[in-house]
Amino acid sequence: MQAENLSKIVEASSKSLALLATVCVGFSVIYDFGYLYGLGLSLREVPTSFSDHLRSAIIWLPSSAIFVVFEFFIAFYFSKRDAITAQKNNITPSQKDAIDNIATGFGASVNVLLWVLMGDRFIWAGALGMGMFVMLFAFMVKTNIPTAYQSAFMYAALAILGACVLFGMAETNATSLLDEKVEDELVLKNKDATQTIKGRVLRRFERSLIIVNEQRIISIINPDDLVRVNFHRERNGNTGLLCKYLGKACPQDSNKTGDKAEVLKPQK
User: Fold this and answer.
1) Does residue 256 lie in a domain region?
2) Do the Cβ atoms of 232 and 260 come closer than 8 Å?
3) Whole-prediction pTM value?
4) Residue-wise pLDDT tens digits, 199-219
5) Is position 263 within any domain?
6) Where are the membrane-spanning stretches (predicted)?
7) Which residue, 230, 147, 211, 214, is CA-closest to 182?
8) 208: domain range?
């Protein structure tokens, strides 16, 4: 009996891991799509592979995990507060659901309207608004779905919401990189010689490399054509509040903070 239960647990665990891996790859494709969209590119123009999308999870998973935990606590707080308020004001569960749906619909409409009026500068708001509309639709039709499928239906709606948020986050990350000052030096192969340009590596894939030069021109090159990157960075170390505001207890070695350092890093 124990062996049979152990076998069921192992089988369920393997299925869960396979499903989790599939979901992660799917989210990674959404992230890469949003990132390339922010650069004015598409998946059709940039050669990618399965391993590229799998590695993308390393980029979005940490920040997404923090976001999910934060949103969980926020939702938990507001749900408890709303429950107490509803009890004090004698609001029935159906009335509370109607109020929540109206609030969600209003928030979704404002986000989508921001995108429509302001353009792609607020595409993150439009993506979030579309995800909120999906959740609103899911909550409204949930009771009309057989009980056995309600959980799967809500998980699917949450996945769509997560994909929308991930798309907006990726697009914002890409556009923020384009707004930064280009100070690095890229050494590229040029026939039998090399060429040095001011630029930045935006994204590395297995079969393609996306770079931007000082004129904000984006290029897709072969990874083997990049010989070296000379990074010019200012290390903004934390000197402490006493040093920052009072000039006290500052580090003795000024080279440890604030000075520029050039790092030669082979890229192959």
Assistant:
1) no
2) yes
3) 0.72
4) 888 888 888 889 888 888 888
5) no
6) 17-37, 57-78, 98-116, 122-141, 153-170
7) 214
8) 182-246
